[in-house]
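Changelog note: in this version the structure field was regenerated for every chain. One regenerated record is shown below for reference.
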Amino acid sequence: MGLFDSLKKKAKQFGLDEAVDALDAIDSVKKTLGDLKGDGLKKKARELGLSSEALEDLGLDDITSTVKSFFSKQTQSETEAEEHRESDEDVRRRFEQERLRHMSPEARRRYMQVRRSQAEVAEREEAEQARRAEEAEREEAGNERRRGLKQSFTYELSDSGTIRDLQEAFTEDYPYLRIGVYMVKTGQGADRDGGKISSIDSDTAFGDIRSFKGECEVEICGGDSPKDLEAHFRKVSGLVIKICYNDEDNHRYYISKDSDWYTEPIYDINCAFRDQGYEKADIS
């Protein structure tokens, strides 16, 4: 096996595509110029109309010395490599160092300019990919929010149904919120004075609540605000409700008229409480 075939085999073994390409280039030039060396090679190059700069750009001596030096050291360290296996990146970095060591100052300068340009291009491409990924993430979040705002369900209230039944259906879609049902006077007092209020027991049947108008259907949509739902339930069923939640310390609150959340969509409120680390709403 010839020198070039041997070196190419080694280059392929270590996945050094650049070295393989360099060896192919050397082999091709050698076939063109013949098996000449030193001054004979330069003389033949001049006969073929190649300038000394063009000959230098070929970098034959640099590349040949680099490849020989690299694989000479690689062969010597193969035994040690079994115990201290280099990563592919380490191997490529060492090969580049060997190559630079055998280059002329001018060739090294041009090479480093190319590498810097490549690094800048790679950096710009990475930044662009990150920007696109962030943009796609924002778009998906926007699409998810639009779906959430449009999502709705209809719930049938009956005399035998309980408050707990309604709460379970509601928290299935909005786990960080809870519907509380209150006596009319309690709700009116909360709207007027705020403060602590007590809800009707969750196991109470709707038929046992004096303000309940009878069997009806209520529609709950992610785009509804607590204000919207309070008005809708009062108008359709006669029930007085509040949208409630548990904070990060598991304390229970209701969203009052003075709260900034009072006119926000319940979908957004549920997401915000989740992101703020609030506890899921309990319906005990």
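Spot check on this record: The mean pLDDT is 80. The longest strand covers residues 240-246.
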